[in-house]
């Protein structure tokens, strides 16, 4: 009985010891993990979190560099509410975003469907269509400037030759100027989306189409009932990336329209830049940035949510 | 395996923390002090020897005869220094500027110069960012008066006084570096605007260049041949360019009284000039609408050089450009004074300045003297179409060119575009001008601009 008891104590003691060793090892593992993560976390903290916190701080101050910030409470936020130019720029950004995203997705999907067949030179076209997305924004915009400039552009040189005597001043007309910006944005967006859609299309099992054919489905049915649902997660990803990229547009606007005519193509980030760095209202610029930030945050959240659901 | 990975990781962290500890925290014992004294003495001796060596290296050259500044011993005695120089991209890459910098470094081997080109239109914002970020370049290029007003440039009155060369400069050029009596830099070049026309087209219609605003409209209409795709005049949506007309007509957009600045955008004369100028494109349609882009200088030259327009307003810099880019039509180019009083134009060109808090003020100032020295100034005029800021340079045979006559004539009366020193007010004025081309009512547009400018000036005077 005694020996039995002793053995139980021994056994308990052993299990306690094992537990202690396990704990120690686990702590070691955690320590290792955190040590490895430290450099990346430090960089992330320094270059992402600190600036964001600083922007929040600035938004409650009047900042005219190099002077010290002066606390003004919600003064910048109040100014923002009454700033018609800012709201106009937000409206323009939304129009641009919706336009360039929809056109970019549609064109990207169309080209990807066309490329998703066996034909000679397929590889060349894959690279060719991707080129605009690796070309800088400024270069892309310059190409379109030389097409659409009303005096020296090639389009207005050719149109009178086919009977259109007085072609419009494309970049000086509010409607056409925005349309051209959307066109350039979607041209670049489509180029980015094509390889992603193509990868998605190539991943749809052939057996689905064969089964549908046996059931008598035509091409349109197969596209709507099989292709589209299969590539939905990829489409959501492309959509969210397009929205984020569109919110960050500045260079194309700078080169083509400079925000004109009469602010009709002024986008939010260009206005933020102007207020912050051209006019030195850094605090106010920070407030505007904070207003744009939630949009992007919501989009990213939406992306994760929808991708998960689709998955 | 884990342990092996730990070691470099820990080492890296130790190094990281070690690097964070400042080098200022050196603690010396009494003995160390003695050793340090000895070391200091030795270093001092070495420095003296070095200085003697450097003094001995003073180049045996007659700098003045070569059209260069005299050797400056104080600069030669400086420690090894690197100057970061930011200039407009269409200056810094040009041979005269590069050669001036190279020869400066040859004469002062202790000074190394690193250059970077920036777009002229972006320079102000770039310098502002650099100054506010605590990393200013040593020398930058813009309108020093504007940078001085915004607290972005170092005053250099003491260095000008030491130099003693102010008398040599054209008054308009010195204006480019002066704000409220303080000098903030050294002018690099000067230009004014005048009327450039296609002599062949004018002769065809038996016309002479216009001398008044009314004549300007008439001549522009008459010389145009829209069926042939030829415009009479190419307006630009540039308020700097417009300012020449304002000066010529005696219109003042900005005035100063007892240190208080105010704008007069709704002045009748101002609106008259704007109307005459913009009507060419919007009402009479004998000029194209200016392009949407911020940079306006390329478009008129391209239209004029391709003979799609009979006249433009520009400066001497575009004479060289037309000669280089459109040689086949260069012999048809004629020049005349701006229509108006005949005694006005806008003073252009730029200046070099030492951005606020730069540590190498003296060396930068010396480099400025080299860049505008007679030797390189005349090369800048000849090769780049960027004209000198010193009066005696205009005795050079280069200025016997009849095309440059209106430029030399207007040099005496040209005025700086001071509104540039107030970016927000300037932006409001520029937007209004642009909007008139895009169909806005002149009075409404400029009344709105006036209100915005008044608010902006009030804000800046309160700060």
Automatic annotation (TrEMBL), chain A:
Compartment(s) where it occurs, according to its Swiss-Prot or TrEMBL record: Cell membrane
Gene Ontology cellular-component terms listed: plasma membrane
Record-linked Pfam families: BPD_transp_1
Bilayer disposition of the protein: Multi-pass membrane protein
InterPro entries linked to this entry: ABC_transporter_permease, MetI-like, MetI-like_sf
Entry keywords, A to Z: Cell membrane, Membrane, Transmembrane, Transmembrane helix, Transport
Regions crossing the membrane: 30-57, 94-115, 127-148, 168-187, 231-253, 281-304
Keyword Transmembrane in annotation: yes
Main location: membrane
Occurrences of domain ABC transmembrane type-1 (ranges): 90-303
GO terms classed as biological process: transmembrane transport
Family: Belongs to the binding-protein-dependent transport system permease family.
UniProt name for this protein: Sugar ABC transporter permease
Annotated source species: Salipaludibacillus neizhouensis
Automatic annotation (TrEMBL), chain B:
Cross-referenced Pfam families: SBP_bac_1 (PF01547)
A GO CC term assigned to this protein in UniProt: ATP-binding cassette (ABC) transporter complex, substrate-binding subunit-containing
Compositionally biased tracts (Low complexity): 31-43
One Gene Ontology molecular-function label: maltose binding
Gene Ontology BP terms: maltodextrin transmembrane transport; maltose transport
Record's keyword annotation contains Signal: yes
Spans traversing the lipid bilayer: none
Signal sequence range: 1-18
Key words of the record: Signal, Transport
Family note: Belongs to the bacterial solute-binding protein 1 family.
PANTHER family per record: MALTOSE-BINDING PERIPLASMIC PROTEIN, MALTOSE_MALTODEXTRIN-BINDING PERIPLASMIC PROTEIN
The protein's name in its UniProt record: ABC transporter substrate-binding protein
């Amino acid at each position: 009985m005694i020996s039995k008891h002793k053995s139980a104590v021994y056994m308990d003691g052993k299990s306690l010891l094992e537990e202690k060793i396990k704990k120690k090892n686990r702590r070691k593992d955690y320590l290792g993990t955190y040590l490895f993560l430290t450099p990346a976390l430090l960089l992330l903290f320094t270059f992402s979190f600190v600036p964001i916190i600083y922007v929040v701080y600035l938004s409650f101050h009047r900042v005219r560099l190099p002077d010290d910030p002066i606390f003004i409470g919600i003064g910048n936020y109040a100014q923002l509410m009454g700033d018609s130019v800012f709201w106009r720029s937000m409206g323009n950004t939304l129009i641009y975003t919706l336009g360039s995203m929809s056109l970019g997705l549609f064109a990207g999907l169309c080209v990807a469907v066309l490329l998703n067949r066996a034909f000679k030179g397929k590889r060349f076209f894959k690279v060719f269509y991707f080129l605009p997305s690796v070309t800088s924004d400024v270069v892309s915009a310059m190409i379109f400037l030389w097409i659409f400039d009303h005096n020296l552009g090639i389009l207005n040189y050719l149109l009178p030759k086919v009977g259109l005597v007085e072609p419009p001043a494309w970049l000086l007309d509010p409607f056409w100027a925005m349309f051209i910006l959307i066109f350039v944005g979607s041209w670049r967006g489509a180029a980015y989306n094509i390889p992603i859609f193509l990868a998605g299309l190539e991943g749809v099992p052939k057996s689905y189409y064969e089964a549908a054919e046996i059931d008598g489905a035509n091409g349109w049915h197969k596209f709507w009932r099989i292709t589209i649902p299969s590539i939905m997660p990829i489409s959501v990803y492309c959509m969210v990336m397009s929205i984020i990229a569109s919110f960050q547009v500045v260079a194309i606007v700078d080169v083509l329209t400079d925000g004109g005519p009469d602010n009709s193509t002024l986008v939010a980030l260009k206005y933020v830049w102007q207020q912050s760095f051209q006019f030195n209202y850094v605090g106010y610029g920070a407030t505007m940035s904070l207003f744009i930030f939630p949009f992007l945050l919501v989009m990213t959240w939406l992306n994760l949510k929808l991708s998960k659901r689709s998955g | 395996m884990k342990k092996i990975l730990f070691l470099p990781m820990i080492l890296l962290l130790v190094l990281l923390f070690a690097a964070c500890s400042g080098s200022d925290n050196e603690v010396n014992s009494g003995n160390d002090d003695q050793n340090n004294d000895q070391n200091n003495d030795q270093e001092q001796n070495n420095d003296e020897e070095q200085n003697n060596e450097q003094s001995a290296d003073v180049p045996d050259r007659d700098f003045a005869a070569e059209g260069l500044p005299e050797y400056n011993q104080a600069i030669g005695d400086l420690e090894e220094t690197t100057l970061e120089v930011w200039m407009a991209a269409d200056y810094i890459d040009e041979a005269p500027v590069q050669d001036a910098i190279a020869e400066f470094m040859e004469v002062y081997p202790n000074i190394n110069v690193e250059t970077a080109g920036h777009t002229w239109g972006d320079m102000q914002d770039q310098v502002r960012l650099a100054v506010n970020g605590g990393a200013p370049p040593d020398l930058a290029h813009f309108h020093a008066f504007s940078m001085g007003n915004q607290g972005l440039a170092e005053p250099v009155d003491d260095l000008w006084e030491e130099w003693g060369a102010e008398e040599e400069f054209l008054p308009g050029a010195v204006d480019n570096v002066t704000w409220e009596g303080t000098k903030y830099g050294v002018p690099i070049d000067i230009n004014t605007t005048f009327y450039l026309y296609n002599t062949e087209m004018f002769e065809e219609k038996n016309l002479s260049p216009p001398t008044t605003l009314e004549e300007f409209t008439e001549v522009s209409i008459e010389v145009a041949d829209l069926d042939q795709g030829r415009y009479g005049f190419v307006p630009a949506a540039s308020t700097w360019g417009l300012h020449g007309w304002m000066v010529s007509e005696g219109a003042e957009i900005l005035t100063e009284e007892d240190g208080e600045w105010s704008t007069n955008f709704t002045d009748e004369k101002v609106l008259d000039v704007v109307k005459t100028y913009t009507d060419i494109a919007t009402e009479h349609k004998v000029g194209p609408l200016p392009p949407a882009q911020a940079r306006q200088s390329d478009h008129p030259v391209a239209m004029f050089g391709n003979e799609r327009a009979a006249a433009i307003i520009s400066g001497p810099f575009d004479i060289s450009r037309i000669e280089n880019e459109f040689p086949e039509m260069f012999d048809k180019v004629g020049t005349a004074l701006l229509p108006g009083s005949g005694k006005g134009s806008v003073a252009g060109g730029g200046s070099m300045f030492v951005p606020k808090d730069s540590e190498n003020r003296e060396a930068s100032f010396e480099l400025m003297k080299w860049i505008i020295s007679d030797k390189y100034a005349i090369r800048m005029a000849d090769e780049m179409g960027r004209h000198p800021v010193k009066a005696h340079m205009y005795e050079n045979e280069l200025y016997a060119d009849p095309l440059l006559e209106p430029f030399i004539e207007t040099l005496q009366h040209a005025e700086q575009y001071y509104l540039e020193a107030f970016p927000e007010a300037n932006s409001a004025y520029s937007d209004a001008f642009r909007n008139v081309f895009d169909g806005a009512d002149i009075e409404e547009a400029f009344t709105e601009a006036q209100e915005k400018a008044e608010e902006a000036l009030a804000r800046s005077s309160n700060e």
